[in-house]
Amino acid sequence: MNAGRSPSFSAACQRLGVCESRFHALRQRWLQESLELLEPRPAGRPVKEPDVSDREMELAADKASLEKQLQLTQAKQEVAEIMAATETARSSKKKMRAVRAKGPRGGERRRNQRRPR
Fold it and tell me: What are phi and psi of 43, to 5 degrees?
């Protein structure tokens, strides 16, 4: 028999297929890992940092949305400018008609127009 070892320890090592020195190394590693697990840690799950690819996808979607909004705003501005120009042209035509209707001296009628009876 081995000095200071029980027969069950040696038999257990033989049954596991490891020598006694390997068993002690594994035991030491297991004890060290157990101590590390007992050390205090922050509560809850660890914070998962978003992948760069996820963030890039979010930014690409935001960019596409903003580009659509920009195109819509530009189209609205163009329509507003056209409407303003059209309204200005209409009002100037109305003014010209009013000036022509009054005649060359303000309120006088044109010569070829008949007088009301």
Answer: -75, 155
